[in-house]
Amino acid sequence: MPVLVASDLDRTLIYSAAALALTMPDPRAPRLLCVEVHESRPLSYMTETAAQLLTDLGDAAVFVPTTTRTRKQYQRINLPGPPPAYAICANGGHLLVDGVSDPDWQAVVSARLADECAPLAEVQAHLAAFADPLWLRKERIAEDLFAYLVVERELLPEEWVKELAAWAENRGWTVSLQGRKIYAVPKPLTKSAAVREVARRTGAELTLTAGDSLLDADLLLASDRGWRPGHGELHEAAWTAPQVTALPERGVLAGERILREFLKGVREK
What we know:
9 helices
């Protein structure tokens, strides 16, 4: 049976320049490979060693990129190795099969959202009414599924996020603060649900995962084994679970370590 490896991307496998955490002396810094260009500028990186590890992983397992990014944002990424047959975008809202969103999965997601949580328009209106222009920079809707705000983090009152989370909880939504973005996501919209669907389709009996944010917690909990880096929301919250290993590495070297652990897990099955 194949092994399914589902991993978050940003700040887990790929890193912006600001998130690389190159704390070693310059001559010892790892060689980097650019894996994303946006508006003619390099945006995301992994180490060259990680690129080779990912290529090896793609040959040995069913590798599934699993991201909160929209499909358009995901398609900017040019990962090394064989093109993944499956990818999960919009936090589980879209299951891509050979690059195309699966309509059957879209129908399942739409039905769950209609049944289990308040509509997006209500959440969008609340964000627009209560976000302060002092720290708000952008309001965005992703794939007509969830909302997020881009903020000036140093000006953002911590209590505002807590109050938003409490308000959202009662309406079947969850809130996550990641860097300069505040996400409001319907509770039924999960990476884990989409990963279970890929496992069903592929017949995988072992699932390995990795992620750094609170939106990845359900993904990690749904796996047989998972890893989280030494940075991000889960690290800051000291979040853990019996099947999840907290790694000490931070930044782009954490991505390299995660891929080593994936390959080790695939070969040990």
